[in-house]
Amino acid sequence: MDSNKMAVSINKAINTQEIAVKEKHARTCILGTHHEKGAHTFWLAVNRLPLSSNAVLCWKFCHVFHKLLRDGHPNVIKDSMRNKADLNDMSRMWGHLSEGYGKLCSIYLKLLITKMEFHIKNPRFPGNLQMSNSQLDEAGENDVNNFFQLTVEMFDYLECELNLFLGVFSSLDMSRSVSVTAAGQCRLAPLIQVILDSSHLYDYTVKLLFKLHSCLPADTLQGHRDRFQEQFKKLKSLFYRSSNLQYFKRLIQIPQLPENPPNFLRASALSEHISPVVVIPVESSSPESEHVAETEDLVDTDIPPLPSTVDSKFDDLFGTSAATDPFNFNSQNGMRKDEKDRLIEQLTAELQALKEELESFRLESGRLCQALRGRVNELEAELAEQTHLKQQALGESEFLRVELDDLRRVKEDTEKEQRSLSEIERKAQANEQRYTKLKEKYTELVQSHADLLRKNAEVTRQMTVARAAQDEVENVKKEMQDRLKAAQDTASQESNEQLSTQLSALEAEKAGLMETVSQKEVELSSLGVELERVQSSLTNERESGVKAAETLQNQLNEKESREQALESKLVSLRWAALRAALEEAGRIVQDSLNQLDDPAHISCTSSADYLVSRCQVALDCVERLQSARDGFVSDNTDVSGLVRAVTQFAHLVGDVIVQGSATSHMVPVEQADALADNVKACGAEALALLCQLKEQKSNGTADCSRLRAALDTVMALGEKLRPRGLELQQGELGDLVEQEMAATSAAVESAAARIEEMLNKSRAVDTGIKMEVNERILASCTDLMQAIKVLVLSSKDLQRDIVESGRGAASMKEFYAKNSRWTEGLISASKAVGWGATMLVDAADQMVQGKGKFEELMVCSHEIAASTAQLVAASKVKADKDSPNLSRLQQASKGVTQATAGVVASTKSGKSQIEDTETMDFSAMTLTQIKRQEMDAQVLVLELETRLQKERERLGELRKKHYQLAGVAEGWGGEEEGTG
């Protein structure tokens, strides 16, 4: 295929007619890129088209370019990146239009730029995004960080697709059958490519999110899940709405997403996910198949013309004998020569029709084969995916079975330990009861022993008395014997009768005494026996008490030793759990520090506002960690509170480290280095604190002050980097809105008065063409000032409606403070309008005095148009779409746009009039002088071209810097950057 044919197809595909791009022209462009292995010819042809002046032309260019990015040669993406800056500028230019094809072109160009950047950054993904599961795994290189970043990029990619989807639907009147009109089909046709891209992106994000949830904590992926939920709702709604349009029903079969999004917290839910498959029917693959093909677009069938000797070849083919040839109509039916020629022409036409039909069948069979091969590839990919899912499910089943067995064993061990503890408690209670009984018995034995001792003392006293009585009896007996002997000695002297009497008395007294002595001896013997019995019983009781006391003491010692062993085991288990939590926390913090050296982390950005909020949360967590540590030191029986505090502490400090490094990527070098160093110091202090908490000796003395100081330093640096607009208080924001709106009104009034004054001066001083030009330009500037005044008043009325409908019971200042981002955008837009009006008057003043340039006036007019669009967008964000003040504001915006166009038109007309009066007279110049001035003019042209190129580059850099500074000052993108 030559480049001329491709250029012709490009010009036929990309035109100003509001009809859908013809499929055959787009197919020719795609084949051309494969033929030349790139998009050189495509961009040569496109760069000649006035894409910036016709929105329909730019829209159809985007459609064809999207097809080339998907189905063209892989080098199309690389060749097209050279035009990325031009596409960006064109997108911003069309973005100033709030409706129609201009807004759609801006959204579509952003999508195409995002698609090119995605494929350049991820070269493993083809343009049509068709990949198998193994290829998707290879794209992430088995690194969870790569999968995390790839998921974020796919979310951004799909967000651009959904924005175009919503933009096209919002620009159509869905109450009418727009899909059967040529204009409606022109807008709907690119959505086929969007549906194909979106189905793959949705499928890949689901699989990547399941993979991430198998590797990372669920809390870390909360932002991913929230963003997926939002995109899932939009995509499901858009797929459903598209499937009901008549235009898509004959061109594409749109899949329907499930009723509920996947549950990523349940790993087995991956097996329930069904990849959405978009089917393009073969018979409807060409959107223009129902339209009549133009004559100039017919494809040459390459049928050679019939030679002049067709009659002879007909005879050679069918024979000439009248007798044997049944087709010799001349002999059979008397057919004339002209009838024969007519029949030949008829057969030739039928033959040509058959050839065309054969060619059509061949093309259709080729498309059918291609579609079948694609379906086979899809089925093979689906089979491979199902096989992979089956293996994954088996692996998960085995893993869950092993985990279930472990849980069962742990449960059994826990139950055994609980039973053992219960048995120990029961035995301890039984021992306690037995000890109480033994203690009572011991007390009884001591009391009995004391009673026996008292009884023994009484018996001893009685024995002493008995011995004293026995001695007395012996003395009496001895005395009686002496008296008896004396009596016997004196018996001889007395009479025998007296002696016998005395002897009998003595014998009787002796018998009485002997009886008394016998009784005393019996009593003394019984007392001795009783004493021996009491002493034996006392000895036995004492021995039994000593043995019982020794047994009881042994049991108590055994119980105390067992309780001490259990307490020691519990303490060791608590410390083991705490050390495991501290080690895991250290790994989390160290992983955050390691991410700072990862090259992929350089592309992560965050805002200072978000960093300050994370630092505050981390400081609060440090306080909770300190309190939990003190509680554990005072009572080490409960370690759960300290474990929870350590876990939360690690995640929050790691988040501060990552967000601090991401914030440093958005600030100047010196501040970035200081922030990065302090973030690393914060991580080092956190690791040191965790090491102190890990040891029992240093746990009670671990100091959090150094970590708290490091976090305070990071927070202070973040406070310095926060946008100035965030420092405003409630009253200041509310007052500033009123002040800026009043200043804008005053600036516009002052500008109108100055223009009127300049107009009067010009009428008094200037004459002729100059006065006419100045009057026309100043009159158009006056109209523009009047239109801006109407715009400002309409904006004030709309803002009043917004505040009254949205503040509730709050005051106006509280409403402005609550919606600070919106308020700051409103203030910025008001400043821009007032500044533009002032600059316009200054440029007009200089131009009237003959010192200025017409170009300055036109640039100021364009700036006012852009500032007006910004003010309308800022006011429209929170307005009710049915508000009459919003309609008046939009009408006022159109009036400003028309007035701006009037200023530009009058400026161009005046410039051309003045330039026409300054005619060049070369009649008095010689050939040498003309040649000399020609050379000087060429040199000046080259210098001006070089200067123009440099000024364009400088303008581009200035715009980039302006967008960057405006974003920092006004807090643009803060919520998006906060996710890291």
Automatic annotation (TrEMBL):
Entries under SUPFAM superfamilies matching the protein: ENTH/VHS domain, I/LWEQ domain
Domain I/LWEQ: 725-966
Subunit and partners: Homodimer. Interacts with actin; homodimerization promotes actin binding. Interacts with CLTB. Interacts with HIP1. Interacts (via ENTH and I/LWEQ domains) with BCL2L10.
Biased composition (Basic and acidic residues): 477-486
Gene3D superfamilies: 1.20.5.1700, 1.25.40.90, 6.10.250.920, I/LWEQ domain
Keywords, ordered alphabetically: Acetylation, Actin-binding, Coiled coil, Cytoplasm, Cytoplasmic vesicle, Endocytosis, Membrane
Gene Ontology CC annotation, any one: clathrin-coated vesicle
Compositionally biased region (Polar residues): 489-499
Superkingdom of the source species: Eukaryota
GO MF annotations in UniProt: actin filament binding; clathrin adaptor activity; clathrin light chain binding; phosphatidylinositol-3,4-bisphosphate binding; phosphatidylinositol-3,5-bisphosphate binding; protein homodimerization activity
Chain positions covered by the region annotation Disordered: 477-499
Record's keyword annotation contains Coiled coil: yes
Cellular compartment(s): Cytoplasm, Perinuclear region; Cytoplasmic vesicle membrane
Domain ENTH: 1-126
Function: Component of clathrin-coated pits and vesicles, that may link the endocytic machinery to the actin cytoskeleton. Binds 3-phosphoinositides (via ENTH domain). May act through the ENTH domain to promote cell survival by stabilizing receptor tyrosine kinases following ligand-induced endocytosis.
Gene: hip1
Organism: Sinocyclocheilus rhinocerous
Protein name as annotated: Huntingtin-interacting protein 1-related protein
Entry coiled-coil feature ranges: 337-441
Gene Ontology BP annotations: actin filament organization; clathrin coat assembly; membrane organization; negative regulation of actin filament polymerization; positive regulation of cellular component organization; positive regulation of transport; receptor-mediated endocytosis; regulation of endocytosis
